[in-house]
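Our consortium's second objective concerns turning raw sequence data into structural hypotheses that experimental partners can test. To show how far this objective has progressed, the report includes one record in full. It was chosen at random from the queue rather than selected for favorable results. The single chain below, 160 residues long, was entered without modification.
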Amino acid sequence: MSRARRNGWVLPVSLLLALLLGLVPLPASMQPMRPYWLALVLAYWVLEEPERIGLGVAFVLGLAADLAFGGLIGEQAMRLVILTFILDRFRPRMRFFPLSQQALAIGGLLLNDRVVGLVIHLVLGAVQLPWTYWVAPLMGMLLWAPLYLVLDALRLNRRA
């Protein structure tokens, strides 16, 4: 029995926790700066367990997030599928990056996610988002290394 199979609970629990972290209320001034927890955790699993996490899981997870957050149905699903596709495409290279370079790449992917979200809002004529909307990818980039280390320790049954 492999180590990853022994801790098979880590994958669903981490994705559920990421979904719940997106629902935690924040003050209105800090709301746009909330890291996209679901994308961060999904990115970890796409990099580490690509045979278990793919475009289909990203789509279903995105639909669940759309329903949970009460947004436009399909918006987060599309954003997570795009993120997963890009990560899956560049996975062999990213796995060999040191954590600092991975964090920069994840920051770029989160910035791309914000651009996709902005385009969706512009096409639909939704309310313009504040400038703090662009701080969230930076927050996600800064959180990547600690999140990666914690999830890796849990997945491999090591002490963090």
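The partners drew two points from this record. Residues 1-5 have pLDDT under 50 and may be disordered. The chain has one domain: 3-155. Both points have been shared with the crystallography group to help prioritize constructs.
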